[in-house]
Structure formats: structure tokens, C-alpha cells
Amino acid sequence: MPEIQLQESEAVGVATDRIRIDQLAAVVMEGLQEYADLATEDLKAAVKKAGDSAKKDVQAGAPVDSGAYKKSWAVKTTKETANAMEVTVHSRNRYQLAHLLEFGHAKRGGGRTRAFPHIAPAEAAAAELLEREVERALK
After folding, report:
1. 92-96 long-range contacts, CB within 8 A, separation 24+
2. What is the pTM of this model?
3. Is residue 27 part of a domain?
4. Domain assignment of residue 35, yes or no
5. Positive or negative torsion for Cα 119, 125, 127, 133
């Protein structure tokens, strides 16, 4: 069997760039910035995935009368910067009903209506999903 001989730089797989000590800080910062950029992309994707998941969970748990309330849920990017992203899951045109259905409300003739908790469970599931996705992305 032929022997394969590798030079030290090929065997270790390290970069052969040499830097002076006064350049060390700049090179380390460049590497950290590259990692931050990659992590930011992964985190933004995780936020989008969690927002979409929350929307689907809200729609799945929403009470159905005509179906308009269930279909009205959407995900909107509220704020996005170079290294941060915020999404909002909201009802586009039936927002007045959201808290009434989630918690119930008083009736005109007395008594209360039944609550249909569908937003809080979806929020909790989305937060858990986001946490898992962030941990997976940063490993």
C-alpha cells in the first residue's frame, strides 16, 4: 500500500497566513464579525420559523364560525436591523375579537361566554420552538 505523505500545513488543515502581533486584534475581530454575521442569519431564520409556527397554531386553535377570523391571522416583520429581527403575529381585520375569544366576555343579559384559549398556547409553543432553533443554530 503506498504511503501518503502530507506537509504539516496540509495534515493539520490550518491557514498558513502569518500575522504580526500588532495585527492580531484586527484578525480576531474579523473572525468574530464573520461568526456574528452567520449567527445573525440563522437567528433571523429561526425567528421567521417561530412566527410562522405561531400563526399556524393560532389558526389551528381558533374557533370557527364563518372561518373569517381563522383566516385573518398573518405574520408581519415589525422591525429588522442588520443584527436583529422582530415579527408580529396578528389578526389583520378581526383584531377586535382576539381578546374576547381568548378570555371570554360578559354577555348583555348577564353571565359570561366561554373562553377559547388559542393565542397563549401558540405563543408558548413558538417561544419553545425559537429556543430550540437558536440552540441548534449556534451549536
Report:
1. 93/68, 94/68, 94/69
2. 0.73
3. yes
4. yes
5. negative
